[in-house]
Design brief:
This protein has about 180 residues and is of the alpha/beta class. It contains 3 helices and 8 strands; from the N terminus they run αβββββααβββ. The protein binds copper (II) ion (CU).
């Protein structure tokens, strides 16, 4: 599918209700719903002033503890991705000519020692974005009804997004406490 056409189709209604209120600990629980153009955590916290400056203040933020597994579930009707942000939005597409080795000069937004994470288990943000652009349902697409899970082992702040719906503001933060 043409990516631009795909993106153009992304402007639908937000606000599909999260199905059920399952909460953590249940086998059926998820922590973050993925709706039409947004991530909807079961609970959100405010981003404090002392968070790193690159953490967006106005996106849904989930707070967990080190060692917690976070489960995203696609409760909507279109494919999404969960892709960790490692640089300012918009830079990746501008640098897709560079190798996927991560050995570039851009600073990573991830906490020191933390691994990159993404649906599709890509090596880095460039590889995930390249896959999305070049392959049908690439980029680690999560189909409706499917899930992605990641266990956070390093405390700190994380910012992530959905590749096709980033222009619609589909972004989230995770704060991992000690
Ligand atoms: Cu999406």
């Amino acid at each position: 599918m043409d990516r631009r056409a795909f993106l153009a189709g992304g402007a639908a209604t937000l606000g599909t209700a999260v199905a059920g209120c399952l909460g953590r600990g249940s086998a059926d629980a998820y922590d973050v719903a993925m709706v039409s153009d947004g991530f909807v955590p079961q609970s959100t916290v405010a981003v404090p002033d002392d968070a790193p400056s690159w953490v967006p203040r106005d996106v849904p933020t989930l707070e967990v503890s080190v060692g917690d597994e976070v489960v995203w579930e696609n409760t909507g009707a279109r494919n999404h991705t969960v892709t960790a942000a490692t640089r300012r939005h918009g830079e990746v597409e501008a640098v897709l000519g560079i190798p996927d080795d991560g050995g570039h000069s851009h600073p990573s937004f991830l906490p020191e020692g933390a691994s990159f994470f993404s649906s599709g288990d890509f090596a880095n943000e460039v590889a995930a974005t390249r896959s999305f652009i070049e392959e049908t349902n690439g980029g680690g697409a999560i189909a409706p009804g499917e899930r992605y899970a990641h266990t956070f082992e390093v405390p700190g702040w994380y910012h992530y997004f959905c590749i096709p719906h980033l222009p619609a503001g589909m972004m989230g933060n995770v704060r991992v406490r000690e």
